[in-house]
C-alpha cells in the first residue's frame, strides 16, 4: 500500500520545519510537513521571540545576521503583522570578568560585521533608564530585535501553504521507512507518506525521530520558563538580556515577558515550578524595578534542546541517504529560523549552502 | 509555617461546611480564603466599618449566612483560618502557593478540598461593555455589602431565582427595579416543579417571599424575553429587549426599548475550575451545571487522589447543595486521613447524601428551566466585543475559526482572546459555545484554554519578596 | 451630585472625601472606591487602549479588571477591590495608563 508522495517530508511544524518547507516550496519542491500537535505548539510557540545576533557562538554570527535580513523580508511579504521589530538588545555585565568576556565578544562580532558596542553603566542607564541592579555596563546591539513567535510561524506557514506546502496537524510519525537505497517515507497516525527525503525538525522530539532509524542525536532537552505581566504602558525599548538572570522584553501589546533560563528536566515535565516563578520575579523586581507595580498573569514552559558544544545540528544524517536533521538550537532557534530554512532548503536541493554549516554536522560528535 | 494535613481553599458555604466536619473529626485543618472574612459570595459579610442596624433589611441569605459563619467561627481555635489569602498556584508535590499580607507563601497538604465557587456567566451582546452594565453578582455585591444602588432605573435581565432575590434586595433598599426580564418561558411543567419542591421548604418559602416582594412593588416580570442591546454614549441609557422562542432565539419584530441607567445581567454562573484543571483533574462538560466541571465520585473526590471539589466550583447548584457537598468532602478527607472509620464516615455523611438527593429533584427542574439555550450565544454581532480585555470582536473570532482555529488555544494564539488580565474568564465560556456553533460541534468537543499558573494575577512585588539578586 | 447610598439597615463609618479626576467625591470607611464612584453616579472608570471605549465596573468581585483605574498614581488598580482612604487620588485610566500617573 503506497501513500501520498512528496519530494520532501518534514517532521515538525516549528520555525525550523516551516521555514525549510517555505524555502523548498519556493524552489519548486513538493513538500509535506507532519506535526504531532499544531503549528508552533512547542518550542517555537513558547519562546519569547527574541532575535539576537549578538552573544551567540562565533560560528553562528553569519547565519544570525542572514536571519535578520530574512525576517525583514518576511515581514514585508506577510499579510499579518507578526511584530518583527528592531528594537535593539542591551546585555548587562555583572562583574569585571563578565565585562571582559563581553568586550572580547564585541570586538569579535564587530569584526564579523555586527553593529554592537560596549557601554558603561552611566551610558546604559541613559539608554535604558528603567534598568537597575548591580551591573557595570552592557553590550548594546541596535540591530537585534524580536517578533511574536506564534504569529511569525503562522504567517510563514500560510506563506508556505500558498506555495503548495501541505501541513498535516495532529499527525504523529510512528515510523521512518528506510531501505537499502535510503529513506523511503514515513508512517504516521494519519497515513503513509512516500518520499526520498525526510527532514527531522522535531525539536525536543528529534532524538526520538532519530532513534526510529538508529541515529543518535546527542541533545539534552531542557525546560525554560516564560512569564508575562499584564499589559503595561510602554516603558521599555530594547530587550534586556542578562546572561545569568534571565531576560526582559516588553511586547508591542505592552505585556512584559520575563524569561527564566533553561534547566535540565526529567522526561517531558511541563509544569511550571514555584522556584522558577519566585526567582524570576525577584530578579525582575531588582533589574526592572518598575515591574514591582505590575502583576504576573501567566507563566508557562517550553522545551529547548541543547548540544554539548552549544552549536545546533544541521545537515545530512550520515549513512542514511535522504535523511536530514535541523534541530537542537540551544535556545536560539527562533532567532535564526528563517536562515535555517533557507540553508536546509539549499542543502537538500543543491547539496551546497551559501553560508557554511560544516560546524553543525551531526557526525561531529563521534 | 505549620504543616497541616487538610487544606481547604475557599470559605464560602462549601468550604466552611467541610472545615466544620473535618475539625469535628479531629483533623488538622487550614482554610485559605481570599476575603478578609469568611462567607464567600452568597454569605459575604459587611466591612466592620458598617454597623448593621436592621439585620432584616439585609435579607434572608444574610441571616442564614450569619448562622453558618457563627458555627464556623466557634471552631476557630481548633483550626487555622487564613483570610486575605489568595491562592495562585498548585505545585508538586502537594503544595499550594498563596499571597498573604503582600507576601508569597506556601503550604503543603495531605488532602485538599477546592471550594472556589463560581462567577457570573458572560453573555456577549451589543453594548454589554457600556459602563452601567453589571453582572447580577456584581450588582448584588454592591447592594448587599457596599449598600449602594447601581442606578435609579435598574433593569434586571437574565434567568433563574437569583434575579428575584436581587430584585427584592434592591426594592427593600428603596431602589427602583423597572423590570425583570426572564429568558425562560412560563414554567410549563408545574407538576414537575411542585414534585421537586416537596420537602424543600426553605427554597419554596424563599421563592414565595421573593415573588410577593416584586408583586407588591409592582415590578413588571416579563418571561421569554432577553436583552438584545444596551445603548448609550458614555454609559447605558437604554436597554433593548425582545421576545424569544423556546431556544431563546429572538423573535423578529418584538424588540422594545426601555430607558435605564443600570442593567444587571444574570444568565447563570460558571464554575471556577482553574484550580481543579491546574491540579490535573479530569473534567466533563455539563451545560445544566454551568459548563466544565471536575469529574467526581460520590465523596466529592476528583480523579486526582487526595483532591476534592465541593460547591459551585464543581457544578453550580446553589448554597444548600454547596453546604452538603462540603460536609461530604470534609468527612471523606477525615476518613482518608484515618480520623474516621469507613462506617463512621458513612454514618456522618448519610444525612448530607439524603439532603442532596432531595435537593436534586428540584435542582434538575430549575436547571432545565434556566440552562442557557443557544439563542443567548447568537445575540452578539460581528461588531460585538467578545474578549473584553483585548477588545476582540466576534467578527475577528469568526475569521480565526474560518482560518483554521478549532479550539480556544488556537483562537487565543491567533486573536489574543484569552490573553488578558481576566485570564479568559469572561470570554472563555462564550467562546466555548461560539466555536462549537461555528464548527457544528458540541461544546464539549472544543478544547478549552490550557490551565496555567498563576490562576489569578499576582503582584510581582509580593512574589519577589526581599533579598539579593540570585 | 447623586447619592445612591442605601440608608436602611446599616450605619456607615467615618465620612471623608476622595479626589476623582480632580473633583472631590464623598466616601466612607469600609467603602470601595468603585462603590463610592457608583454612589456618586459615576459609572465610566476607564477608556480602553485599542477602541478607546468607556468601561466601568462589570463583575464587581475583582475578576474582570474592567474597573482598572489609576489610583494614587499607579495604573491597573481595581476600583471594586480597593478601599477608599481619605484624600486618595483616583483618575480615569486612559488605555494602559502611564507608570507614575495618568496620560
Question: Would you give an account of this structure?
Answer:
The complex is a heterotrimer of chains A (366), B (470) and C (103). Chain A is an alpha/beta fold and 366 residues long. Chain A contains 9 helices and 20 strands. In chain A, the strands form 4 sheets. Chain A has an 8-stranded mixed sheet with strand order 6-7-5-15-16-17-14-18, with helices on both faces. A 6-stranded mixed sheet of chain A has the order 9-3-2-13-20-19. Chain A has a 4-stranded mixed sheet with strand order 1-12-11-10, with no helix packed on it. In chain A, strand 15 and strand 16 form a beta hairpin. In chain A, helix 1 runs parallel beside helix 6, helix 1 packs parallel to helix 9 and helix 3 packs across helix 9. The two termini of chain A are 38 Å apart. With 470 residues, chain B is α/β, with parallel strands linked by helices. In chain B, the strands form 7 sheets. A 5-stranded parallel sheet of chain B has the order 4-2-1-8-21, with helices on one face. A 5-stranded parallel sheet of chain B has the order 10-17-11-12-13. Chain B has a 3-stranded antiparallel sheet with strand order 5-6-7. In chain B, helix 8 runs antiparallel to helix 9 and helix 10 packs across helix 11. The model of chain B has no long low-confidence stretch (mean pLDDT 93). In chain C, 7% of the residues lie in helices and 31% in strands. Chain C is built from 1 helix and 9 strands, in the order E-E-E-H-E-E-E-E-E-E. Chain C has a 5-stranded mixed sheet, covered by helices on one side. Chain C has a 3-stranded mixed sheet with strand order 5-4-9, with no helix packed on it. In chain C, a hairpin with a 2-residue loop joins strand 2 and strand 3. Classes of the chains: A alpha/beta (366), B alpha/beta (470), C mainly beta (103). At the B-C interface, strand 3, strand 10 and helix 3 of B face strand 1, helix 1 and strand 5 of C.
Amino acid at each position: 500500500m503506497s501513500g501520498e508522495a512528496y519530494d520532501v517530508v518534514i517532521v515538525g511544524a516549528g520555525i525550523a520545519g516551516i521555514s525549510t518547507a517555505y524555502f523548498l516550496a519556493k524552489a519548486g519542491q513538493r513538500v509535506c510537513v507532519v506535526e504531532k500537535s499544531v503549528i508552533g505548539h512547542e518550542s517555537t510557540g513558547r519562546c519569547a521571540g527574541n532575535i539576537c545576533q549578538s552573544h551567540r557562538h562565533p560560528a553562528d554570527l553569519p547565519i544570525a545576521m542572514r536571519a535578520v535580513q530574512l525576517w525583514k523580508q518576511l515581514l514585508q511579504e506577510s499579510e499579518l503583522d507578526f511584530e518583527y521589530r528592531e528594537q535593539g538588545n542591551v546585555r548587562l555585565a555583572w562583574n569585571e570578568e563578565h565585562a571582559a568576556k563581553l568586550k572580547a565578544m564585541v570586538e569579535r562580532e564587530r569584526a564579523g560585521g555586527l553593529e554592537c558596542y560596549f557601554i558603561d553603566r552611566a551610558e546604559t542607564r541613559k539608554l535604558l533608564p528603567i534598568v537597575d541592579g548591580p551591573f557595570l555596563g552592557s553590550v548594546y546591539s541596535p540591530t537585534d530585535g524580536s517578533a511574536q513567535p506564534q504569529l511569525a510561524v503562522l504567517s510563514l506557514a500560510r506563506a508556505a501553504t500558498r506555495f503548495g506546502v501541505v501541513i498535516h496537524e495532529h499527525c504523529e510519525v510512528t515510523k521512518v521507512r528506510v531501505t537499502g537505497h535510503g529513506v523511503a517515507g514515513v508512517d504516521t497516525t494519519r497515513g503513509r507518506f512516500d518520499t526520498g527525503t525526510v527532514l527531522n525538525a522535531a525539536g525536543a522530539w528529534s532524538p526520538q525521530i532519530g532513534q526510529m532509524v538508529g541515529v543518535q542525536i546527542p541533545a539534552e532537552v531542557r525546560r525554560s520558563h516564560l512569564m508575562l505581566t499584564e499589559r503595561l504602558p510602554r516603558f521599555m525599548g530594547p530587550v534586556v538580556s542578562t546572561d545569568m538572570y534571565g531576560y526582559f522584553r516588553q511586547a508591542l501589546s505592552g505585556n512584559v515577558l520575563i524569561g527564566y533560563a533553561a534547566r535540565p528536566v526529567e522526561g517531558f515535565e511541563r509544569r511550571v515550578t514555584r522556584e522558577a516563578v519566585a526567582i524570576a520575579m525577584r530578579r525582575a523586581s531588582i533589574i526592572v524595578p518598575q515591574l514591582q507595580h505590575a502583576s504576573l498573569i501567566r507563566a508557562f514552559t517550553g522545551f529547548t534542546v541543547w548540544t554539548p558544544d552549544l552549536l545546533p545540528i544541521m545537515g545530512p544524517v550520515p549513512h542514511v541517504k535522504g535523511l536530514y536533521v535541523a534541530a537542537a538550537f540551544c535556545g536560539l532557534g527562533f532567532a535564526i529560523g528563517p536562515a535555517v530554512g533557507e540553508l536546509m532548503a539549499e542543502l537538500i536541493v543543491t547539496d551546497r549552502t551559501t553560508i557554511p554549516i560544516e560546524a553543525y554536522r551531526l557526525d561531529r560528535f563521534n | 509555617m505549620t504543616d497541616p494535613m487538610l487544606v481547604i481553599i475557599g470559605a464560602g458555604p462549601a468550604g466552611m461546611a467541610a472545615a466544620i466536619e473535618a475539625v469535628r473529626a479531629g483533623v488538622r485543618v487550614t482554610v485559605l480564603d481570599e476575603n478578609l472574612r469568611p462567607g464567600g459570595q452568597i454569605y459575604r459579610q459587611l466591612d466592620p466599618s458598617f454597623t448593621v442596624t436592621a439585620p432584616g433589611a439585609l435579607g434572608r441569605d444574610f441571616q442564614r449566612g450569619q448562622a453558618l459563619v457563627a458555627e464556623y467561627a466557634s471552631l476557630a481555635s481548633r483550626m487555622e483560618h487564613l483570610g486575605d489569602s489568595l491562592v495562585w498556584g498548585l505545585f508538586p508535590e502537594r503544595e499550594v502557593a498563596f499571597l498573604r499580607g503582600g507576601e508569597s507563601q506556601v503550604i503543603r497538604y495531605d488532602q485538599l478540598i477546592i471550594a472556589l465557587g463560581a462567577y457570573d456567566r458572560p453573555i456577549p451582546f451589543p453594548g454589554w461593555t457600556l459602563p452601567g452594565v453589571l453582572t447580577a453578582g456584581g450588582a448584588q455585591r454592591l447592594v448587599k455589602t457596599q449598600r449602594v444602588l447601581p442606578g435609579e432605573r435598574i433593569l434586571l435581565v437574565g434567568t433563574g431565582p437569583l434575579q428575584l432575590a436581587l430584585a427584592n434586595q434592591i426594592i427593600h433598599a428603596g431602589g427602583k427595579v423597572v423590570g425583570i426580564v426572564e429568558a425562560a418561558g412560563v414554567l410549563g411543567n408545574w407538576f414537575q416543579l411542585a414534585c421537586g419542591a416537596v420537602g424543600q421548604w426553605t427554597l419554596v418559602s424563599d421563592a414565595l417571599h421573593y415573588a410577593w416582594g416584586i408583586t407588591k412593588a409592582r415590578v413588571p416580570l416579563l418571561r421569554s424575553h432577553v436583552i438584545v442591546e444596551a445603548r448609550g454614549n458614555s454609559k447605558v441609557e437604554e436597554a433593548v429587549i425582545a421576545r424569544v422562542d423556546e431556544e431563546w432565539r429572538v423573535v423578529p419584530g418584538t424588540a422594545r426599548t426601555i430607558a435605564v441607567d443600570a442593567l444587571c445581567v444574570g444568565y447563570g454562573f460558571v464554575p471556577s475550575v482553574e484550580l481543579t484543571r491546574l491540579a490535573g483533574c479530569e473534567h466533563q462538560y455539563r451545560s445544566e451545571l454551568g459548563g466544565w466541571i471536575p469529574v467526581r465520585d460520590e465523596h466529592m473526590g476528583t480523579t486526582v487522589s487526595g483532591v476534592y471539589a465541593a460547591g459551585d466550583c464543581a457544578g453550580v447548584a446553589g448554597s444548600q447543595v454547596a453546604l452538603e457537598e462540603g460536609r461530604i468532602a470534609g468527612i471523606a478527607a477525615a476518613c482518608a486521613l484515618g480520623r474516621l472509620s469507613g462506617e463512621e464516615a458513612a454514618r456522618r455523611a448519610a444525612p448530607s447524601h439524603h439532603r442532596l438527593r432531595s435537593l436534586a429533584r428540584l435542582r434538575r427542574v430549575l436547571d432545565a428551566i434556566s440552562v442557557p439555550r443557544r439563542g443567548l450565544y447568537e445575540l452578539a454581532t460581528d461588531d460585538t466585543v467578545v474578549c473584553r480585555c483585548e477588545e476582540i470582536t466576534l467578527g475577528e473570532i469568526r475569521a480565526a475559526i474560518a482560518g483554521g482555529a478549532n479550539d480556544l488555544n488556537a483562537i487565543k494564539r491567533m486573536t489574543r482572546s484569552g490573553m488578558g488580565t481576566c485570564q479568559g474568564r469572561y470570554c472563555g465560556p462564550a467562546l466555548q459555545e461560539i466555536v462549537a456553533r461555528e464548527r457544528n460541534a458540541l461544546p464539549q468537543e472544543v478544547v478549552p484554554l490550557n490551565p496555567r499558573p498563576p490562576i489569578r494575577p499576582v503582584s510581582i512585588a509580593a512574589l519577589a519578596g526581599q533579598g539579593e539578586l540570585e | 451630585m447623586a447619592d445612591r447610598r442605601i440608608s436602611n439597615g446599616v450605619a456607615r463609618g467615618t465620612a471623608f472625601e476622595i479626589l476623582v479626576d480632580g473633583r472631590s467625591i464623598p466616601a466612607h470607611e469600609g467603602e470601595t472606591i468603585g462603590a463610592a464612584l457608583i454612589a456618586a453616579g459615576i459609572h465610566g472608570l476607564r477608556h480602553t487602549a485599542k477602541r478607546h471605549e468607556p468601561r466601568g465596573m462589570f463583575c464587581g468581585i475583582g475578576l474582570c479588571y474592567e474597573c482598572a483605574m489609576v489610583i494614587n498614581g499607579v495604573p491597573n488598580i481595581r476600583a471594586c477591590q480597593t478601599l477608599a482612604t481619605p484624600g486618595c487620588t483616583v483618575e480615569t485610566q486612559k488605555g494602559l495608563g502611564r507608570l507614575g500617573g495618568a496620560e
